[in-house]
């Protein structure tokens, strides 16, 4: 290879690595062009701090009874079930029918759907609080967490669609909660998944869904989000990103090396686009970083086109007669709170909660508030006793 060719190749690798970092940041809702000063602490010290946080933090350590569902295209979907504690179950009014020798009805099951480049552990705090009190299902969306890579994505190289995710959720419900009432909870892309389920399976919503919680999500017009960037930066991202993503997805190994090489920059951008509070627990920030950085760049690329195409505004009508919680961080740069306000505007009976000092990962940033509002929703539909206390929060509090 000539000197000029080697120089060009090296330049491409450096560019690709840095672009990979920026695009990986999109997994947390960031965009290219964000300026972050490099930390002055030595890399070795930073690495030791990361290892200390990883070893001592309990976040993401909760596990339930594992199960597998299979999508209509054969993709393996991993889920876990946390069942109701027998003591709490016998105290629930619905369970009292057993005293008269009748078959108890199936319990309410709360199904949690996570966001883009996260996994089921993103609901750590809510899962810990509700454990044993209500039956819950936590699953990993295709190509995330412990679920398998999307079969058509790997086999045919086709991008993912939000409709596909809605069908995946239906497969998980069929496997993990085949009967009984359901509460659907979705964050960001998980909320879009819930909308896609309703759009394609309205009879399921009508017959079995008793409540819905949509956290930091959008029903459409995501192509208009500016990620807090100036107009020129946003226009550049919209113009070049699809092609860049496609190219980087084909060179995943090289891009991942570049992303790891600038891990401190990556961590800073993740924090900027995930949280708004200045005093976020470093262990929580590191927990979010671990989830996001575990998503391969080719998976990031497979998902990206789905968001610009996403429009499930009309599907919201299927939730019109249900108790609905719509919650968002006011400083969310990924799915701005205006999108949640638009959803609530189409569901006038919904409870709209806007959290002033919160970003995109509001359920990790303000876990008690999110858990409290979710517990209140569950109590209203009889999914848990109204007098229950969840992680120090009275579920009936206003």
Structure in words:
It is a single chain. The chain is an alpha/beta fold and 398 residues long. Helix content is 46%, strand content 13%. It has one domain: Alpha/Beta hydrolase fold, catalytic domain (Rossmann fold, 3-Layer(aba) Sandwich). Strands 1-2-4-3-5-6-7-8 form an eight-stranded mixed sheet, with helices on both faces. Residues 4-41, 93-101 and 392-398 have low confidence and may be disordered. Strand 7, helix 14 and strand 8 form a beta-alpha-beta unit. Helix 1 packs across helix 9 (231-249), helix 1 (3-26) crosses helix 10 and helix 11 crosses helix 12. The protein has 16 helices and ten strands.
Sum up the overall morphology in one term.
globular
Question: Beta-sheet strand percentage?
Answer: 5-15%
Low-pLDDT windows of residues: 4-41, 93-101, 392-398
What fold name stands as the CATH topology?
Answer: Rossmann fold
Strand order of the largest sheet: 1-2-4-3-5-6-7-8
The first-level CATH class name: Alpha Beta
CATH superfamily: Alpha/Beta hydrolase fold, catalytic domain
Radius of gyration using CA atoms only? 21 Å
How many helices? 16
Helical residues, percent:
40-55%
Give the integer mean of the pLDDT values: 80
Structural class: alpha/beta
The sequence of SSEs as H and E is HHEEHEHEHHEHHEHHHHHEHEHHEE
Q: How many discrete structural domains?
A: 1
CATH architecture call: 3-Layer(aba) Sandwich
- Let me know the largest β-sheet: 8 strands, mixed
Cα distance spanning the termini: 69 Å
- Secondary structure: number of strands: 10
Organism: Streptomyces griseicoloratus
Protein name: Alpha/beta fold hydrolase
GO molecular function: hydrolase activity
Domain AB hydrolase-1: 109-367
């Amino acid at each position: 290879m000539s000197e000029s060719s080697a120089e060009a190749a090296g330049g491409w690798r450096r560019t690709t690595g840095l672009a990979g970092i920026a695009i990986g940041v999109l997994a947390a809702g960031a965009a290219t062009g964000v300026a972050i000063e490099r930390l002055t602490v030595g890399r070795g010290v930073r690495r030791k701090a990361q290892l200390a946080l990883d070893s001592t933090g309990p976040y993401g350590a909760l596990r339930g009874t594992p199960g597998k569902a299979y999508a209509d295209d054969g993709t393996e979907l991993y889920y876990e079930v946390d069942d109701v504690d027998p003591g709490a179950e016998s105290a629930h009014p619905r369970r009292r029918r057993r005293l008269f020798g009748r078959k108890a009805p199936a319990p309410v099951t709360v199904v949690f759907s996570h966001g883009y480049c996260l996994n089921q552990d993103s609901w750590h705090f809510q899962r810990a609080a509700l454990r044993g009190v209500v039956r819950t299902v936590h699953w990993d969306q295709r190509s995330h967490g412990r679920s398998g890579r999307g079969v058509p994505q790997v086999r045919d190289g086709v991008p993912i669609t939000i409709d596909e995710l809605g069908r995946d959720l239906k497969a998980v419900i069929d496997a993990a909660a085949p009967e009984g009432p359901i509460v659907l909870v979705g964050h960001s892309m998980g909320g879009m998944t819930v909308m896609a389920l309703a759009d394609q399976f309205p009879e399921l919503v009508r017959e079995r869904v008793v409540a819905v919680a949509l956290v930091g999500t959008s029903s459409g017009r995501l192509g208009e989000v500016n990620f807090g960037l100036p107009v020129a930066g946003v226009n550049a991202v919209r113009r070049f990103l699809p092609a860049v993503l496609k190219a980087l997805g084909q060179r995943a190994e090289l891009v991942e090396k570049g992303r790891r090489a600038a891990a401190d920059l990556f961590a800073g951008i993740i924090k900027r686009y995930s949280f708004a509070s200045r005093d976020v627990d470093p262990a929580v920030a590191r927990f979010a970083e671990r989830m996001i950085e575990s998503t391969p760049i080719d998976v990031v690329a497979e998902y990206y086109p789905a968001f610009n195409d996403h429009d499930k505004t009309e599907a919201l009508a299927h939730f019109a007669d249900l108790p609905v919680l719509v919650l968002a961080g006011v400083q969310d740069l990924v799915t701005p709170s205006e999108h949640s306000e638009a959803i609530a505007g189409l569901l006038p009976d919904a409870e709209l909660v806007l959290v002033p000092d919160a970003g995109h990962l509001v359920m990790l940033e303000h876990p008690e508030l999110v858990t409290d509002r979710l517990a209140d929703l569950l109590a209203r539909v009889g999914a848990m006793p109204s007098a229950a206390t969840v992680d120090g929060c009275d579920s009936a509090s206003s």
